[in-house]
Specification:
globular; 60s Ribosomal Protein L30, Chain: A
């Protein structure tokens, strides 16, 4: 497949995602998407879509590798932020399902504004 990501990574700046603990709420005994997660998905999706389009919307081939840098203090678990990000990547980019992500690295970085996500794959 030509035109896909191989040696070149794609890097995106995103708003800080909600914790997985805050992605869903229970309403009348049913699990629903929380207002916080819904708002983040909309804002982050728009931001991601614009950045991806500016890069030419290249296809990302499996296996996929993801590096996530988050500006969080030590009162928050950085591992709880990954799922919102990987689900958004799959929904908005031309990439395989998140089950094809072979490596995820999550780092705390107090020098950035919110979240920086770098993805790569192999042709």
């Amino acid at each position: 497949m030509s035109g896909g990501i191989n040696a070149t990574d794609l890097t995106f700046e995103l708003p800080l995602p909600p914790s997985s603990n805050n992605m869903f709420a229970t309403y009348n005994g049913r699990r629903i998407i929380s207002r916080e997660y819904k708002a983040w998905r909309t804002a982050a999706g728009d931001t991601l879509g614009k950045q991806y389009a500016a890069m030419g919307s290249p296809e990302v081939h499996k296996p996929v590798h993801v590096r996530i840098r988050l500006n969080l203090n030590h009162q928050s678990d950085i591992g709880n932020r990954e799922k919102a990000i990987t689900d958004l990547l799959v929904a908005k980019l031309d990439m395989p399902d998140d089950r094809y992500i072979d490596r995820i690295v999550i780092e705390r970085d107090r020098t950035i504004d919110a979240a920086i996500v770098t993805i790569g794959g192999e042709a």
